[in-house]
Amino acid sequence: MTAAPAAAGLYAPGDSWLHRAPAGAKLAALVAAVSAVVAAANLPAALAAAGAGAALYPLCGLGVRPIWRTLRALAPFLVLIALFQLLAGDAWAAARLCAQLAGAVLLSGLVTATTRVSAMLALFERLARPLTVFGADPRRVGLVLALTIRCIPMVAESWRASREAYIARGLRGRPHVLVVPVVVGLLRSAEAMGEALTARGID
């Protein structure tokens, strides 16, 4: 079965080998891969990580559209990093850092796109169990981390909805006016999420 394309940070149902892999193994592989790329600190390794991340999307039935959406969202940060490094006179570092960031984000998006939130929540709860000696509640720690992951696509969705409304009203050249509706949309989502948690006895 082929999974529907997913936005960055959203789970896309599927039955690929990566979908079936345990969440812990995927997270460990992600940490190891990103750590290795950062430790290597060279452009070929960074390009290899970015290329591998991009190649795995279609191989896991996710298609190529999530790659484009992820890189498009990342583009402003890549431009700023490149400009800063170029102003510092280090074009090689600019290319390396941009490739490292693109690779890390693509690989991270691949993990979240092939892992159910429930599986990620269970994993975080297991990882947080040692913190009980300090009085922490693993369930709450897992819930906070899972909600953080869930909120990433919510921000993108709020921005997309506000931008579509902006274009529908015939507005052009004033992107700063999108900030207020995006913030209001996020506050409403946060309020609804808080009410849902309260209704389930989670304060």
TrEMBL record:
The keyword Transferase belongs to this UniProt entry's keyword annotation: no
Keyword Cell division: no
Any Pfam family hit: CbiQ
Signal peptide region: none
Transmembrane intervals: 27-59, 71-95, 101-124
Keywords: Membrane, Transmembrane, Transmembrane helix
CDD domains, per the entry: EcfT (cd16914)
GO cellular-component term (any): plasma membrane
Subcellular location: Membrane
Mode of membrane association: Multi-pass membrane protein
InterPro entries linked to this entry: ABC/ECF_trnsptr_transmembrane
PANTHER family: PROTEIN ABCI12, CHLOROPLASTIC
Record protein name field: Biotin transport system permease protein
Organism: Streptomonospora nanhaiensis
